[in-house]
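TA notes, week 10

Several of you asked for a full example with nothing omitted. So below is the full record: structure tokens for the whole chain, then the designed sequence directly under it. When grading your own attempts, check the secondary structure regions first.
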């Protein structure tokens, strides 16, 4: 099989590519010039629709279709770039901004032009200190070269771009939470409709797109919709960044065509290269925490937007895989997962605020060895009584809590039952000792991901 040529990570490792000069020498900003000079905004929207590009931020919504939801008659439109990247186990946006900031800026120019936007905001999670400075330096350089500001490429098109740093909340990655936060308010999601395309930032039509989604756009303009569509699987086109963390030999961020299997990601020579110290895989949460878990026997699942659903997962999510080793105590995995959502619920909706907290309490009871078999049914029942899908919440956070919790309990039920049936003298002391001084200090698996970045090959 022909070796896959990286697209999004093609500049990783190229000396000085964060500088405008080197980026341009490698063909950078040619796609932006081509888009602005040779195409109307409507044509760009059509090309992106035709490419089948689906949002990389979690929901997989087709980007071109989202752009076409903007009302035809409008005076002001905003583009919000979602660089909040708070999903546990996910760090591909970070890599893109750190390694190739101009690629993102070029994607912003083309996408802003397509949506006839004259102001773009990059909303970045506060912990991205280094990435903020890298991106701001690149933006300053691009402004100085006339790539932002007035009359881009002599076409009369104007575009301002600002980087806004969040204060560090998972829920501010949700697009309307992001918008509220950007407006200077408390960062919690808005009731929809109206959707942002109709009434978003400052009550104006707004498009929110993920960093990786926008990074795909220059390549689509440069090489065409048909080329983009030829990569990946049916309905899931294009290149994708996959991240992998946990006890694998080579944790990191890898580029591959959409649809590689989870097994390949863990064991493939170009990716994770297998487990360290001969450890075995118990399971893998393949798409950021919120999508749910695959067992070892399900690892041949293709990681594209559609196949994952056949395995009971919420979706592809962010394609940030967290590997759970065989020797991990599944009760502690569950408690760890439940803790995250209980902590991050913004508290507006009763089912989410109470439900995530209730699930955390049940999970802790099980982890401490005081669980009952009935708790397994109870926690699964709670997962079904919350979230946007049953229409009980403002945002998708509780759906994202429900899937990992329910799939962990259902797919590892035997293991939970064995633990619960077995009397384990001293379990409470054992766990508390491990988790003390504050049980709330349980580490969150994969949240920080890995610090090494690689591209395939
Ligand atoms: C609780 C929650 C957190 C989210 N966090 C992020 C995030 O950190 N980054 C992101 O791009 N999308 C995140 N999303 C999805 C966004 O709401 C939105 O769908 C996405 O930014 C749209 O961009 P895309 O169409 O390019 O994927 C989150 C959604 C929810 C419900
Ligand atoms: S679902 Fe949860 S996180 Fe989302 S708005 Fe409601 S309380 Fe907040």
């Amino acid at each position: 099989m022909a070796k896959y040529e990286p697209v999004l990570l093609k500049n990783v490792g190229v000396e000085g590519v964060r500088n405008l000069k080197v980026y341009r020498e490698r063909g950078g900003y040619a796609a932006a010039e081509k888009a602005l000079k040779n195409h109307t905004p409507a044509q760009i929207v059509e090309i992106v629709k035709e490419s089948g590009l689906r949002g990389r931020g979690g929901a997989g919504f087709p980007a071109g279709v989202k752009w076409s939801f903007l009302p035809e008659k409008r005076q002001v439109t905003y583009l919000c770039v979602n660089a909040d990247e708070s999903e546990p186990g996910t760090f591909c946006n970070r890599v893109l901004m750190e390694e190739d900031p101009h690629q993102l800026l070029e994607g912003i120019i083309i996408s802003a032009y397509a949506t006839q936007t004259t102001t773009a905001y990059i909303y970045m999670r506060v912990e991205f200190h280094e990435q903020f400075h890298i991106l701001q330096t690149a933006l300053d350089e691009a402004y100085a070269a006339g790539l932002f500001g007035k009359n881009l490429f002599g076409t009369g098109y104007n575009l301002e771009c600002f980087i806004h740093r969040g204060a560090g909340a998972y829920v501010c990655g949700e697009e309307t939470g992001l918008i509220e936060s950007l407006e200077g308010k408390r960062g919690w999601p808005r009731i929809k409709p109206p959707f942002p395309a109709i009434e978003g930032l400052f009550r104006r039509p707004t498009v929110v797109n993920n960093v990786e989604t926008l990074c795909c756009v220059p390549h689509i303009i440069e090489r065409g919709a048909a080329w983009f569509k030829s990569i990946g699987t049916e309905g899931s086109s294009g290149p994708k960044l996959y991240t992998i963390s946990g006890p694998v030999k080579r944790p990191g961020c890898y580029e591959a065509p959409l649809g590689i299997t989870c097994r390949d990601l863990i064991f493939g020579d170009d990716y994770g290269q297998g487990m360290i110290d001969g450890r075995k895989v118990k399971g893998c949460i393949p798409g950021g925490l919120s999508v749910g878990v695959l067992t070892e026997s399900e690892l041949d699942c293709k990681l594209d937007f559609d196949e994952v659903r056949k395995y009971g997962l919420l979706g592809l999510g962010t394609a940030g895989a967290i590997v759970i080793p065989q020797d991990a105590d599944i009760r502690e995995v569950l408690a760890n997962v439940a803790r995250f959502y209980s902590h991050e619920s913004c508290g507006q909706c009763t089912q989410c605020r109470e439900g995530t907290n209730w699930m955390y309490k049940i999970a802790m009871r099980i982890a401490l060895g005081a669980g009952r078999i009935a708790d397994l049914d109870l926690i699964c029942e709670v997962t079904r009584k919350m979230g946007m899908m049953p229409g009980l919440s403002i945002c998708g956070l509780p759906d994202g809590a429900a899937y990992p919790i329910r799939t962990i309990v259902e797919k590892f039920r035997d293991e939970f039952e064995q633990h619960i049936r077995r009397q384990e003298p001293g379990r409470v002391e054992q766990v508390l000792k491990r988790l003390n001084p504050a049980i709330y200090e349980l580490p969150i698996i994969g949240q920080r991901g890995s610090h090494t970045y690689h591209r395939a090959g």
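The first strand starts at residue 78 and ends at 83. Use that as a sanity check on your answer.
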